[in-house]
Amino acid sequence: MIIKPRCLSAIMLVMIVSLLVPCRGLHDRTDKIGALLTGRVDDRRLISSWFMYEPMISPLFVPSRSVPGGDAQIRKFVRIYFPRNYEAVQIQDFILFEGTQMAMFSPLQQRWMHDAVLEGTGGMNSRSLLSTQYFQDWADSATQRAFPNDVEALLSLGAIWSRYPRDARIILEEGTGLPPVLTMFKGKGVPWYLPGYRCALVIPRQGAVVWSWIEGPFADRANEKPGCTPQIISWQYGEGITWTTHDSLTEWWWQDPMANPYGFDIIMNMILYCTGRQLPADVEIIHDIRSKIIGFNTRTVLLLGTIEFAEGFGANMAPIFEGMDDVMNSKGEADEIYLAQEYEQARLAYSQCIEDLEGLNALAIERKDRALIWIYLAQWLIVSATLILAGFTLWLLMIRRRLYREVASTSFRGR
Question: Which site from 53, 115, 160, 415 is most exposed, i.e. has the minimal number of CB atoms within 10 Å?
């Protein structure tokens, strides 16, 4: 629901919804989405593998929260990986803040990210104020002014986190002319009811748009929808569109992918929308494609492991490497089809890549088994020869006793 009195006229509604349309005219873009990813984005997080293997995304990871080595290591990561000038920040299509320690970025770097949004870069910050520990750094940052959550209003309340678990229900905003960024997941396997849930309060800035609500937590703050406060909001800031979510990208998003298998699909829809790309017409097709991409990467790792193991025993894996080159070329062609958002063709292409990879894996296992057969045969011959020799020696010494020489008995004779 758009932040408005319930009696807002249809004309005003159309005017406000029209503000949601990205004004960069990029609806038919097919190039990769440059994503600057900050906060909890190290390789221990599922979010890292999401963006690492998504063909639509060209990720730039800047770990800046929960890093082994503490603040010193975070500053080192920021110094190494963060773009060196404003132009390199401005060309990013999307910036993610997932629990980011904003104090790890210089005021100039924070200003660059703010200005990039102003000039058309999309973005998302999680957990309302990012962190229960570092929220003041976010509140003091120039970057936060580009995001739709009203930081000043939240700080004036004091208690802004639901510290005690309570049952919650997510309700999608419908019937206001919003694009189906979230509503396409209605009726899918998304956990809309969340028992024992904790989250942070979201207060939209004036002009922000509410895409979904959470019923239960902060019910005393509900002033737009009875018993509900905003869960996901967005607004247009200059040329860019940014989002704020009520919680970290855990729990409902991905902490249990089996409970919400569509978590990454939801995030990708938000990214596609704020970067001016077309939304998928069929979420099941694109979800299946992303599952196939993950399956392809998993099979590739397993195949490489088999190759490495077999080569250690002298197996000739050159034909497998040649086959992998062909499969990777096919995978690149499938990625191009996927980037062009021709999803049905892309699904068929990825299925063929997986089939070809499974054929290579079967061939690699066959070659590995063939190499091991000779090793097992050699070991069997050695063990058998040793057994035969030991048995013959035992028989010769203990049974035939041919190597023994009979001696006369001796006795002691005194003088």
Answer: 415
> CA nearest 143: which of 115, 104, 101?
115
For 113-168, what is each residue's pLDDT tens digit? Answer: 999 999 999 999 988 776 667 888 999 999 999 999 999 888 888 767 776 678 88
Spell 199-225 as b/e; 16+ CB within 10 A means b: bbbbbbbeebbbbbbbbbbbeeeeebe
210, 223 contact by CB (below 8 A): no
Tokens of 338: 């996927």
Residue 415 included in any domain: no
237 and 363: one domain?
A: no
Cβ pair 97, 151 in contact under 8 A: no
Q: Residue 77: give the domain boundaries.
A: 10-279
The reply to whether 408 falls in a domain is no
Q: Which tokens belong to 226?
A: 């009875």
- The total domain count for the chain is 2
Same domain, 298 and 270: no
The residue behind tokens 């070809």 is 356
Token pair, residue 379, equals 């070991």
CB-CB contact of 3 with 207 (8 Å): yes
- Quick one: 224 and 334 in the same domain? no
Residue 190 inside a domain? The answer is: yes
Angle at 263 between CA 260 and CA 265, to 5 degrees: 130
Are 214 and 299 found together in one domain? no
